[in-house]
């Protein structure tokens, strides 16, 4: 039995940085994630004139309810969609200022339009420098009155998270009617964290799809970041594949992140899953069955399952994951391409992938610069020694020490 600690959640750290910056007072984040995405977010806040003091496992953020200290800034959001979507939204609430945002080549390709259209509806002057609805963009802030909005979050829940977090910074609050929503559990993280910073959002409508966000700002706090559940999926999958037992500390029934539900998928495949209030254990004899599963809510773990799938006794069909085509790469095609290179039969459709059992052979994985492709195929590597990656370092986005940590973990399980 191996007990492991996983680094902090990217999603929780990004939200905490936004909420802390907007709050009245100094917030301390305990055990934030240190990775390219969250360092990029923190750097963006500094460029906007927020005070961010980083100690080893505590970051202190000086909140500015009146908005950024600078009235002009040029911010590079790197490859992180939370940064590229949340930070322009925070800056849009400034009483006055002109801000330019840009991002990596892939992040420039990823969509923003429903969010930028919503900000325009709220009166923010926004110009896209190249393609409409994409980075780079320039915004002129002049305070936001608030009001009613309709939002299609069918491509990314991050649009809704950004607008929910903006609500308390507007003069009159926001009422957001959501017509479609993917990755719904991420909205639960947002609402729970807003509550920790003093804001209660109410939900109404036939599908609880109308969100009313009161004005009045946020209260600073001390906030402990829980471990990253998407990162934990590689360790759970490794245990399920190799017939071991792993316990991840700090992620149990009290956890905020929906991606922890990946263990239910492993449970359906035959693994034994036990959860306490603050830990989750996966144990398996190494035999896994195939299944059909809808991963709309937890699609960051789709590549983890895809890499595990050839070792199951029957086909694995993953449905409703069309939005994984607009992530760090087209993840449906990247998974299919790499599995085929390993000699596995794979079919894909617009929003699904079906993987057949087989005997994978080693190959060089085409990572497309996507951290999750590397970390997922590292799981397959446990049964197929000799797998290499064209860009192993892209794990820096969410887990710079992944290779060392995963090697230590597999050493332990081999003892
Ligand atoms: O809000 C968040 O922190 C995230 C939401 C999800 O994105 P989508 O809503 O675009 O699926 C997820 O894939 C991403 O890694 C993090
Ligand atoms: C999709 C991801 O990240 P983001 O959308 O925050 O860039 C991810 O981490 O898998």
From TrEMBL:
<dbReference type="GO" id="GO:0003866">
    <property type="term" value="F:3-phosphoshikimate 1-carboxyvinyltransferase activity"/>
</dbReference>
<feature type="binding site">
    <location>
        <position position="397"/>
    </location>
    <ligand>
        <name>phosphoenolpyruvate</name>
    </ligand>
</feature>
<feature type="binding site">
    <location>
        <position position="323"/>
    </location>
    <ligand>
        <name>3-phosphoshikimate</name>
    </ligand>
</feature>
<dbReference type="InterPro" id="IPR036968">
    <property type="entry name" value="Enolpyruvate_Tfrase_sf"/>
</dbReference>
<comment type="similarity">
    <text>Belongs to the EPSP synthase family.</text>
</comment>
<feature type="binding site">
    <location>
        <position position="331"/>
    </location>
    <ligand>
        <name>phosphoenolpyruvate</name>
    </ligand>
</feature>
<dbReference type="InterPro" id="IPR013792">
    <property type="entry name" value="RNA3'P_cycl/enolpyr_Trfase_a/b"/>
</dbReference>
<feature type="binding site">
    <location>
        <position position="372"/>
    </location>
    <ligand>
        <name>phosphoenolpyruvate</name>
    </ligand>
</feature>
<feature type="active site" description="Proton acceptor">
    <location>
        <position position="300"/>
    </location>
</feature>
<dbReference type="InterPro" id="IPR023193">
    <property type="entry name" value="EPSP_synthase_CS"/>
</dbReference>
<comment type="function">
    <text>Catalyzes the transfer of the enolpyruvyl moiety of phosphoenolpyruvate (PEP) to the 5-hydroxyl of shikimate-3-phosphate (S3P) to produce enolpyruvyl shikimate-3-phosphate and inorganic phosphate.</text>
</comment>
<feature type="binding site">
    <location>
        <position position="158"/>
    </location>
    <ligand>
        <name>3-phosphoshikimate</name>
    </ligand>
</feature>
<feature type="binding site">
    <location>
        <position position="110"/>
    </location>
    <ligand>
        <name>phosphoenolpyruvate</name>
    </ligand>
</feature>
<dbReference type="InterPro" id="IPR006264">
    <property type="entry name" value="EPSP_synthase"/>
</dbReference>
<feature type="binding site">
    <location>
        <position position="11"/>
    </location>
    <ligand>
        <name>3-phosphoshikimate</name>
    </ligand>
</feature>
<feature type="binding site">
    <location>
        <position position="157"/>
    </location>
    <ligand>
        <name>3-phosphoshikimate</name>
    </ligand>
</feature>
<feature type="binding site">
    <location>
        <position position="327"/>
    </location>
    <ligand>
        <name>3-phosphoshikimate</name>
    </ligand>
</feature>
<feature type="domain" description="Enolpyruvate transferase">
    <location>
        <begin position="4"/>
        <end position="405"/>
    </location>
</feature>
<feature type="binding site">
    <location>
        <position position="15"/>
    </location>
    <ligand>
        <name>3-phosphoshikimate</name>
    </ligand>
</feature>
<comment type="subunit">
    <text>Monomer.</text>
</comment>
<keyword id="KW-0057">Aromatic amino acid biosynthesis</keyword>
<keyword id="KW-0963">Cytoplasm</keyword>
<keyword id="KW-0808">Transferase</keyword>
<dbReference type="InterPro" id="IPR001986">
    <property type="entry name" value="Enolpyruvate_Tfrase_dom"/>
</dbReference>
<dbReference type="Pfam" id="PF00275">
    <property type="entry name" value="EPSP_synthase"/>
</dbReference>
<protein>
    <recommendedName>
        <fullName>3-phosphoshikimate 1-carboxyvinyltransferase</fullName>
        <ecNumber>2.5.1.19</ecNumber>
    </recommendedName>
</protein>
<feature type="binding site">
    <location>
        <position position="156"/>
    </location>
    <ligand>
        <name>3-phosphoshikimate</name>
    </ligand>
</feature>
<feature type="binding site">
    <location>
        <position position="158"/>
    </location>
    <ligand>
        <name>phosphoenolpyruvate</name>
    </ligand>
</feature>
<keyword id="KW-0028">Amino-acid biosynthesis</keyword>
<feature type="binding site">
    <location>
        <position position="10"/>
    </location>
    <ligand>
        <name>3-phosphoshikimate</name>
    </ligand>
</feature>
<comment type="pathway">
    <text>Metabolic intermediate biosynthesis; chorismate biosynthesis; chorismate from D-erythrose 4-phosphate and phosphoenolpyruvate: step 6/7.</text>
</comment>
<feature type="binding site">
    <location>
        <position position="300"/>
    </location>
    <ligand>
        <name>3-phosphoshikimate</name>
    </ligand>
</feature>
<feature type="binding site">
    <location>
        <position position="10"/>
    </location>
    <ligand>
        <name>phosphoenolpyruvate</name>
    </ligand>
</feature>
């Amino acid at each position: 039995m191996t007990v492991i600690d996983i680094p902090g959640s990217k999603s929780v750290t990004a939200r905490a940085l936004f909420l802390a910056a907007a709050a009245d007072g100094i917030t301390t984040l305990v055990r934030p994630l240190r990775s390219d995405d969250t360092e990029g977010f923190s750097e963006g806040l500094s460029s906007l004139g927020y005070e961010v003091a980083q100690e080893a496992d505590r970051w202190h953020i000086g909140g500015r309810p009146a908005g950024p200290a600078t009235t002009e800034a040029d911010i590079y959001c790197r490859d992180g969609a939370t940064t590229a979507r949340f930070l322009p939204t925070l800056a849009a609430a400034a009483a006055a200022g002109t801000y330019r945002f840009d991002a990596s080549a892939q992040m420039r390709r990823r969509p923003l339009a429903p969010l930028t259209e919503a900000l325009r509806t709220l009166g923010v002057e926004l110009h896209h420098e190249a393609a409409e609805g994409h980075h780079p963009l320039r915004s002129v802030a002049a305070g936001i009155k608030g009001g009613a909005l309709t939002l299609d979050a069918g491509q990314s829940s991050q649009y809704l998270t950004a607008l929910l977090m903006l609500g308390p910074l507007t003069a009159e609050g926001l009422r957001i009617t959501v017509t479609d929503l993917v990755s719904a559990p991420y909205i639960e993280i947002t609402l729970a964290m807003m509550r920790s910073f003093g804001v209660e959002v109410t939900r109404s409508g036939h599908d609880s799809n109308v969100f009313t966000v009161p004005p009045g700002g946020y209260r600073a706090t001390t906030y402990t970041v829980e471990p990253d559940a998407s990162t934990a999926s590689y360790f759970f999958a490794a245990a399920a594949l190799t017939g071991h037992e792993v316990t991840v500390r700090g992620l149990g029934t009290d956890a905020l992140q929906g991606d922890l539900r990946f263990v239910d998928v492993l449970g359906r495949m035959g693994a034994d899953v036990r959860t306490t209030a603050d830990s989750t254990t996966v144990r398996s004899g190494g035999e896994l069955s195939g299944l059909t599963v809808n991963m709309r809510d937890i699609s960051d773990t789709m590549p983890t399952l895809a890499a595990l799938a050839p070792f199951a006794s029957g086909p694995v069909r993953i449905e409703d994951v069309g939005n994984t085509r607009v992530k760090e790469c087209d993840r449906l095609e990247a998974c299919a391409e790499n599995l085929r290179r390993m000699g596995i039969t794979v079919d894909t459709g617009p929003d699904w992938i079906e993987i057949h059992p087989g005997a994978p052979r080693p190959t060089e994985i085409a990572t497309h610069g996507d951290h999750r492709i590397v970390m997922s195929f590292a799981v397959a590597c446990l049964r197929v020694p000799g797998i290499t990656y064209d860009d192993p370092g892209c794990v820096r986005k969410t887990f710079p020490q992944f290779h060392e940590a995963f090697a230590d973990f597999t050493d332990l399980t081999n003892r």
